[in-house]
Write a structure and sequence with these properties.
The complex is a heterodimer of chains A (about 220) and B (about 300).
Chain A lengths: L1 H48 L3 H16 L2 H12 L3 H25 L3 H9 L4 H31 L11 H11 L2 H36 L1
Helix pairs in contact in A: 1-4, 1-6, 1-7, 1-8, 2-4, 3-4, 4-6, 5-6, 6-8, 7-8
Chain B lengths: L1 H19 L12 E7 L2 H17 L3 E8 L2 H10 L4 E5 L19 H16 L1 E10 L2 E6 H7 L4 H5 L6 E4 L1 H5 L5 H8 L5 E4 L2 H9 L5 E5 L4 H4 L2 E3 L11 E7 H6 L1 H8 L7 H13 L4 H11 L5
Parallel strand pairs in B: 1-2, 1-3, 6-7, 6-8
Antiparallel strand pairs in B: 3-10, 4-10, 5-8, 5-9
Chain lengths: ~220, ~300
């Protein structure tokens, strides 16, 4: 009981700063995810339209390399170019998001039966119409699963951004380690988990409702 | 082929497992291994290699140094569990949330702080906190000489007049610390910065160079203070706690190996701030090995032949 009361007191004393860390965390995660989506989905579509395998594998290999750079090194390497704070953190997270987003979108469009695309063509759809009306909707489950996985990853990775002065929940955790305060570590971890789970649930609901409306229109 | 892979994997596992379980191994000369942990900044590393050199010179024992433990409370936990026998710690650690508020009395008096650390860590963790190595490495606030001259800032009180437009870079823990952290600082000096930016210690100087930070919580022995021509502000209202460096050892280890205590005592009061700053300069800026710098110092002092 004592522990719970202490923990409540801890929140009462610190909730403005805890919220600030959480908001920073959310902003960084959302920004990098949105930029990631805006860049990778057109890029993935372009890749499915490319005839040259060499270029495709080049792009995927680059995304692969970014993915394998250790988080702490990636953040450190950003500093000479972008300084400290949110800018390098968001850029690093964006680079990490490339591979899962790209792969899923690409796989989604590739997975579509070529017969369906041919049928669309036969009905007089041009390439753009076929993409918007047929291919993207069919690839959506893949794309969404890519976005969901990536968002959970990013929320977890952004905790590292605190070492380069970008704040976020990692700041709470690192403070807790340095100041020997388990409440800080626990709170930072808990909130990161809550954010990740909540985001995932949100996407899940979005997907469900989208499926429902689609079924209705068909 | 499958059999071969299996064989290789099991051999590898065996090697890894034996390497992990090597706690009770003997040295070639029949002595024991002492485990010493260091923080991720440079002064504890240099001191660890001094202890290593001395122990290996004077006894049959050897010292394993584990560098870059992210924070001192982790080192204390590891010592409490018996994973480390030795470490270099700073007296201000006593205010770092290890003890209840009624046990420890916050003071900026160096002797009283050290006394409390020696008493409390012995009682709670069974650790022997030795006398000072001779230098302090305390928190202080530093700004660029340019800014200091332009605005005529010499003390932390002076800084207050401009603080609302300035960003301070600090290690993340300082923002959340209790008696000696940013919260208490704002009350004590009655001003806040525009922003307090927590980041990795070594990046604070990077941030100053890039002009993204205006002030930083530097450590008093950091060679970058000289290197980057920074001005250390006078703590005119006596806020920051003292932080005297001492070697710390597990009482259990000392009981079994009393010769270790003698060696540690031989380092008492041997290193002053200037000497430590010079050594850190040689490691951080001239990129020499902490091991070589430590050895050179011991030879100069006549502690090692």
């Amino acid at each position: 009981m004592e522990f719970i009361r202490n923990y409540f007191e801890f929140w009462r004393d610190r909730y403005p700063s805890i919220l600030e860390y959480a908001v920073q965390h959310l902003i960084m995660s959302a920004l990098s995810l949105v930029i990631g989506i805006l860049v990778t989905i057109p890029l993935a579509i372009l890749l499915t339209r490319l005839k040259r395998n060499f270029l495709k594998s080049l792009v995927f290999n680059i995304a692969n390399v970014f993915q394998t750079v250790p988080t702490i090194a990636m953040l450190a390497l950003m500093i000479p170019i972008l300084g400290i704070g949110m800018k390098p953190a968001v850029t690093a997270m964006f680079l990490y998001s490339l591979l899962p987003l790209l792969r899923n979108t690409y796989a989604g469009i590739q997975s579509i039966d070529s017969g369906i695309v041919d049928a669309a063509k036969g009905m007089g759809y041009n390439s753009f119409q076929s993409l918007i009306k047929v291919e993207l909707p069919l690839a959506m489950p893949y794309i969404m699963s890519g976005i969901r996985v990536t968002s959970v990853y990013i929320i977890s990775w952004v905790t590292m951004a605190a070492v380069i002065g970008a704040g976020g929940l990692g700041g709470l955790i690192i403070s807790g380690i340095g100041f020997n305060d388990k409440n800080l570590i626990f709170t930072g971890t808990l909130l990161a988990i809550v954010l990740a789970v909540a985001t995932d649930l949100l996407f899940a609901r979005f997907e469900k409702s989208r499926n429902r409306t689609r079924r209705k229109t068909i | 082929m499958k059999k071969l892979t299996l064989l290789c994997t099991s051999l590898l596992l065996l090697v890894v497992l034996t390497a992990c379980g090597g706690k009770d191994k003997e040295t070639a000369a029949g002595g024991t291994f002492f485990e010493m942990g260091t923080q991720d900044y440079t002064d504890p590393k240099i001191i660890a290699y001094m202890v290593k050199e001395l122990v290996e010179d004077q006894t049959d024992h050897e010292v394993n140094v584990t560098e870059n433990i992210q924070a001192s409370p982790l080192i204390i936990t590891a010592m409490d569990k018996g994973d480390f026998d030795l470490a270099t710690l700073y007296s201000g650690e006593v205010y770092n949330n290890h003890f209840d508020d009624d046990q420890v009395e916050y003071t900026t008096d160096p002797d009283k702080t050290l006394e409390q650390a020696q008493k409390l860590f012995d009682e709670k963790f069974n650790l022997k906190w030795f006398d000072s190595l001779g230098f302090e490495n305390k928190y202080t606030i530093a700004i660029t000489e340019d800014l200091a001259k332009k605005k005529n800032i010499e003390t932390m009180t002076d800084l207050g007049k401009y603080a609302k437009d300035l960003t301070i870079g600090t290690d993340s823990a300082w923002i959340e610390r209790g008696d000696d952290g940013y919260r208490a600082f704002q009350e004590h000096y009655d001003y806040s910065f525009k922003k307090a930016n927590g980041l990795e210690i070594s990046l604070m100087y990077e941030g100053l160079k890039l002009r993204e930070l205006d002030a930083i919580t530097a450590y008093s022995v950091d060679p970058e203070i000289k290197e980057l021509n920074l001005r250390v502000l006078e703590d005119d209202k006596g806020f920051f706690p003292p932080s005297t460096a001492s070697l710390v050892a597990r009482e259990d280890t000392l009981k079994d190996y009393p010769e270790l205590e003698e060696i540690i005592n031989s380092l008492t009061d041997q290193i002053n701030e200037e000497e430590m700053t010079q050594m850190i300069y040689e490691v951080d800026i001239e990129k020499q090995e902490p091991k070589d710098v430590a050895k050179k110092f011991l030879i100069e002092k006549g502690l090692l032949k």
